[in-house]
Amino acid sequence: MIINFYTKVDCLLCKEAFALLETLKDLYSFEINICDIHANDEWLEKYFLLIPVIDINGTILIGDDIEFSRLEQVIQENI
Predict the structure, then answer these.
(1) pTM score
(2) Shortest CA distance to 74 belongs to which of 62, 35, 61?
């Protein structure tokens, strides 16, 4: 499974969310596709005010939704 992680440089919330993903990666089999929103105009327009954004097979987690138990639940549902 590939998880898309939408982020930008120097984003503290993004670093925290990425750390959660890294922790869960030790427990579950998935890859993290890092998507810098400044590399794509569509991502920039869509996610600029929302990052960090995690897309797990179409389930989108944004900002406050990104917490360990919720993230783990969505990963388990999609493995």
Answers:
(1) 0.93
(2) 61
Query: What does the pLDDT read at residue 63?
Result: 85
C-alpha to C-alpha distances, 14 to 3, 19, 53, nearest whole angstrom: 14, 9, 8
Q: Is 37 helix (H, G, I), strand (E, B) or coil?
A: helix
Strands 31-36 and 2-7: parallel
Type of residue numbered 57: N
CA distances from 45 to 18, 40, 48, 72 (A): 21, 9, 6, 28
The Cβ-side half-sphere exposure at 52, using a 13 Å CA radius, reads 24
Helix 68-78 × helix 12-25 angle, to 10°: 50
